[in-house]
Write a structure and sequence with these properties.
By secondary structure, this protein is mainly beta. Helix content is 4%, strand content 46%.
């Protein structure tokens, strides 16, 4: 693999469900090498996700009623450290900030 992100870079993680963009979260690169990409998302990080007009998470909304657009939100809870294996990175869910 070539074209690694550098530690400290901020990249956007895009989450999809059934081909629909569900959220975009900026994550900080901790490590990126042939083994994969290790990222950190701090608590209260601003992000964009789909929520209905009442603010409900999509797991609580019938799929036919999902909103068309993403809205501003924040990462809830504590921070999270995520390791994405090299094979999973091929899905194209990351982009430079």
């Amino acid at each position: 693999m070539t074209g690694f992100f550098a530690p400290g870079d901020t990249v956007r993680y895009r989450s999809y469900f059934g081909g629909t963009l569900m959220s975009v979260t900026p994550v900080r690169v901790v490590r990126h090498d042939d083994g994969g990409l290790l990222t950190w998302t701090a608590g209260d990080t601003p992000l964009w996700r789909r929520r209905d007009a009442a603010g409900r998470a999509l797991r609580d909304v019938p799929r036919g009623e999902w909103p068309a657009a993403l809205s501003e939100d924040v990462w809830f809870g504590h921070g999270v450290l995520v390791l994405m294996g090299a094979a999973g990175l091929a899905a194209g869910r990351l982009g430079a900030r």
